[in-house]
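Q: Can someone sanity-check these two? First one:
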Amino acid sequence: MKFLDEAKVYVRSGDGGAGCVGFRREKFIEFGGPDGGDGGRGGDVIVEAVAGLNTLIDYRYQQHFKARKGDHGQGNNKTGAGGDDVTLRVPPGTQIFDDDKETLLADLVKAGDRVVLCKGGDGGFGNTHFKSSTNRAPRRAGPGWPGEERWIWLRLKLIADAGLVGLPNAGKSTFLAAVSRAKPKIADYPFTTLHPQLGVVLVDNAEFVLADIPGLIEGAHEGAGLGTRFLGHVERCGVLLHLVDGTQDDVAGAYKTIRRELKQYGHDLHTKPEIVALNKIDALTADEIKAKREALKKAARKTPMLVSGVAGTGVTEVLRALMKPIRERRQGEVAAAKAEIEPVEEPVAKGSWRP
């Protein structure tokens, strides 16, 4: 399945049905009163986050969604049937923007979240609503109200426990392939990965989702390359694994470039927990490893881990280091959920009675 993280869609809710002009005409009732029914309500346009989806590829091939109109009213005070709703199913983590791509309409973070984007038009009144003491036989009915329409942008920000960041060709895809069953494209040139990849990682009988974010470059926060779209996926990750290519000359500069882009992009990306790892140590000598580790330690102000995705060196240690903040985050979410569910007991005054 191809990955698509952004799509433009046209949505329109259904128009309301028109009211009916009708009169009673039973046998022996010569001058029956009005009995025109109301029109039915138009269908809504709903967007719902559904578990099991991780791409917006369906909206590349269908961009127009229109809800059905409400049926017209009928005689004998019959109200027209309401129009069927249209539901757009999207992956959890999808944001909905207006046509200007800046106004956020909704953020569907978890499965089950839903929002009504366009409400269907109300049905028109039948002539029964217009009768009065002075107008006993009105020949007037209301037309249905029009539905709403708009162009929207769907933007997916992958929800993963951990994210891989680093310059192009830092070995992120190789690492993901080594620790999961994901099969990203791997080659010896920059920007091999053009779309984020997800993999489920198992370590010490615990699982978490690892996202391979395509390589960032200098100026990514301003849109260089595909930076702004890639950085958006980092927002949903709980912890970052920053891989630095050990075979390049300036490992400290490579680290600082990514950190600078994360900070200038905003959304508190630079404050996320970070594990720094010097990658591709299988291609370095012991002296080179020592020198570059010291240079990276000075730049990151923390001791970097040593890893090789190809040889499998240090992989388990890195995964365990990632699992620690992930476990703490999950425990915090569970505690917060329990706090919302459990009622707060009010203190009982001394001498009072509570049934």
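And here is the second, same format, sequence then tokens:
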Amino acid sequence: MPVKKEKKSNIELMRAVCALGILIYHFSAHVSSPLNFMMMYANGNISGALIDVFLIISGAMLYLNNTEIASLKEFYYKRFKSIYPAFYIAFGCFFLYRVFKFKRFFYLDCSPFTLILSLLGLDGYFSSYAPNYYILGEWFLGAIIILYLVYPVLLYGIRKYPVVTTLLVFSAYAGIIFYNVFQTSLKNIFSCMMSFYVGMLLQKHERLIKNYFVFGVSALIGVILAVYRLPFITNPENVSFKNVMNHLMGLCLFITLYHVGSFITRVRLIQKITDFLGSLSYPVFLLHHQIILIAVGIYNPTATIDYFITLAAVTGVTLISSFALKTVTRLLLKSQPYRDFEALILKKTS
């Protein structure tokens, strides 16, 4: 029998915080209002820390629900099903809008073959390396896809050779930080793998993050990093320093929100709200940036009150659109043509 996916309300709270936090960050980055405190903390940027939390969540939840992989085909198909249908629906809508707007199918001055990156969901991840038809999804969608592909290898390592695997992952991360072998930004796949693998470790040793002393230390470090710039850093703008700080802040946020979420979601109403918002996190990640660009193009707030009113409107539209995307995706997955496609892939009878 298939194993039912386990769901945790404190994790759904984290997903909601990440999605809404990144929405606020991107909104603040595009408007003329001077509320840049919504973008930075003392030692890094808020978006980087929240992305790190999201990567930790991805590793932890994948390990929770896939400690064994009986069939690689079924494993990869489930990952495809969780990512691509919603992505294709949203991408298709925005792509066709641009086709009609510019009256050209290949409306950008870049190779048509780069659409392959979009079909793979990797266009955002590689957009800084080559111009392509990247529209939505944020760069870390591509990172997640790559990490899903290598997850079976990481799973084998963490189960059979945990010490060696941990040393290899941490060493790869240390290599890009100290020697700058590759780009040291958060986009670097070894940087993303570090967070993803830490999530796997935390789930494997969940009793550690349940410890109240660990919670207290994490919350304290998180507060210090948020409000106090570390004095021993000669160049706080250094990319490697920001990378390390965002990883550390992301880890502290994850552990802190794990405990806070476990406590406040005991209230039934809060649990329902966080579960609902958490279930919309992926559609929000897909849609929010385009909605922000459209909204700011219509009205760009400059005053503080206008900032919050416009932000509330953008958030409302994003949540409604995300719920619509989720609903359409669910209907697609339940349709007979899709069931026939699924049966063909998995070689099952409808």
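A (reply): Looked at the second one. The mean pLDDT is 90. The first strand starts at residue 40 and ends at 41.
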